[in-house]
Design goal:
alpha+beta; 101 residues; two-stranded antiparallel sheet
Length: 101
């Protein structure tokens, strides 16, 4: 993974993505600058999002095995729908949990 530069101390480091539970089924993915310890919040997930992520992985595996062009288009269309649903849900979670900070 490429290095990133901390906005606070300018230290370059490799991202070590971590997760922690915020409440019930809400998880935060984040990383920390090893030099100044500034926390960067990447994204939030809930059970619905994680279930969709698993379904997306299954669909990509199915797409790689699919020889029928029309079936492949249907699978990719479904993947796009699930990705869009996840983006919307993640945005709602970010607004909810970062507005309270």
């Amino acid at each position: 993974m490429p290095n990133v530069k901390c906005d606070h101390c300018q230290n370059e480091f490799e991202i070590n993505l971590k997760t922690r539970t915020i409440e019930r089924d809400i998880e935060l993915a984040y990383f920390i600058c090893p030099n100044c310890k500034h926390e960067y919040r990447s994204f939030y997930t809930n059970e619905k999002i994680r279930t969709r992520q698993d379904k997306i992985k299954e669909l990509w595996a199915k797409a790689r095995r699919t020889l029928n062009e029309n079936k492949l288009k249907q699978i990719i269309c479904r993947i796009d729908e699930l990705v869009e649903q996840n983006k919307e849900e993640m945005s709602r979670l970010r607004e909810r949990y970062e507005a309270s900070n």
